[in-house]
């Protein structure tokens, strides 16, 4: 029994240099019914059911299925002449956060009931990534009576049978992948978190930072890129403007006196221009408020 299944895909997210630009942030959905399988490709705002009460027991992480999905995804890429995606623990954590949230709060989509989408999640929770991201999600209701390999093959096949999901799986620009599959009773959710990694931050940036201070920050490029970032700035997604910088990258990030929540953007030299890529989100607080923060990384 396969039960009722639904899956949606989101294309790479980058407000500064989007791969695809949409005139409206409203949901654009293309439902498709194939032999009892409902697919919905959602661009922008993902629809969600009203949240139900939180479960008392944590969802069960299907670790072997997760690994099989990862391997099956790379098998599809190799068959299409694409390079294999590398595993990244940060992307896996990102996928598991969203998968668990979908099960616990009983919704399906890229935006959670709080309105947080995949781009904002990546900026908030992946503290080392510089680059662009994409996401596939899937919902399945029914008994799970297959082997882990058979279930993983079914999940990947259903993504591959949908054009938007297939595009994410086979996208040439993606370099890394994190997968998570979880079950709660007869409810299953799965998430693939993709990334086109341009560089890595070390050490991981804290989320809460005090205004007017500096925090250690170095950037390393991926091995396939000869040049690393030379400058950075802070970008306000709500105001769509630069609030600080660009500044030269010299071993630390200078935090301005301005308070608020901003994305760090990095400038990578390419011939006679710069390529600008997104990094993590920073929550800049007054020094007294920052000292009261219970953790430097959001939970």
Kindly state the number of beta strands: 16
CA distance, first residue to last residue? 36 Å
Radius of gyration: 20 Å
Mean pLDDT: 80
Structural class: alpha+beta
User: What's the overall geometry?
Assistant: globular
Q: Which band does the percent of strand residues land in?
A: 35-45%
Q: Treating each run of at least 4 consecutive H or I residues as one helix, how many helices?
A: 6
Question: What would you note in describing this structure?
Answer:
The chain is α+β, with helices and mostly antiparallel strands. Helix content is 22%, strand content 39%. The protein is built from six helices and 16 strands. The protein has helices spanning 63-79, 89-104, 118-125, 148-160, 163-170, 287-291; strands spanning 4-13, 28-34, 37-43, 60-61, 86-87, 129-141, 176-184, 187-202, 208-210, 214-216, 218-221, 231-236, 241-248, 252-254, 260-270, 273-285. The strands form three sheets. Strands 1, 2, 3, 4, 5, 6, 7, 8 and 11 form a nine-stranded mixed beta sheet that branches. Strands 9-16-15-12-13 form a five-stranded mixed beta sheet. The protein is globular, with a radius of gyration of 20 Å.
């Amino acid at each position: 029994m396969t039960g009722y299944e639904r899956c949606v895909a989101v294309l790479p997210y980058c407000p500064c240099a989007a791969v695809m630009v949409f005139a409206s942030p409203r949901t654009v959905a293309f439902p498709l019914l194939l032999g009892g399988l409902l697919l919905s490709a959602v661009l922008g705002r993902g629809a969600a059911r009203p949240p139900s009460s939180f479960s008392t027991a944590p969802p069960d992480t299907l670790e072997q299925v997760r690994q099989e999905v990862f391997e099956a995804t790379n098998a599809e890429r190799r068959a299409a002449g694409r390079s294999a995606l590398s595993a990244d623990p940060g992307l896996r954590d990102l996928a598991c956060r969203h998968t668990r949230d979908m099960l616990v709060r009983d919704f399906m989509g890229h935006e959670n009931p709080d309105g947080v989408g995949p781009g904002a999640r990546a900026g908030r929770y992946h503290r080392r990534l510089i680059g662009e991201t994409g996401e596939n999600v899937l919902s399945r209701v029914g008994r799970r009576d297959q082997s882990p390999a058979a279930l993983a093959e079914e999940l990947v096949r259903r993504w591959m049978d949908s054009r938007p999901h297939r595009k994410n799986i086979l996208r040439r620009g993606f370099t890394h992948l994190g997968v998570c599959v979880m079950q709660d009773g007869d409810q299953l959710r799965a998430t693939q978190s993709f990334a086109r990694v341009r560089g890595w931050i070390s050490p991981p940036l804290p989320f809460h930072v005090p205004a007017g201070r500096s925090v250690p920050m170095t950037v390393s490029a991926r091995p396939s890129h000869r040049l690393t970032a030379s400058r950075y700035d802070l970008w306000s997604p709500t105001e769509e403007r630069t609030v600080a910088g660009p500044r030269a990258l010299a071993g630390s990030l200078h935090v301005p006196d301005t308070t608020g929540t901003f994305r760090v953007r990095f400038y990578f030299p390419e011939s006679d221009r710069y390529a600008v890529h997104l990094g993590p989100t920073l929550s800049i607080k007054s020094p007294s408020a920052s000292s009261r923060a219970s953790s430097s990384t959001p939970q």
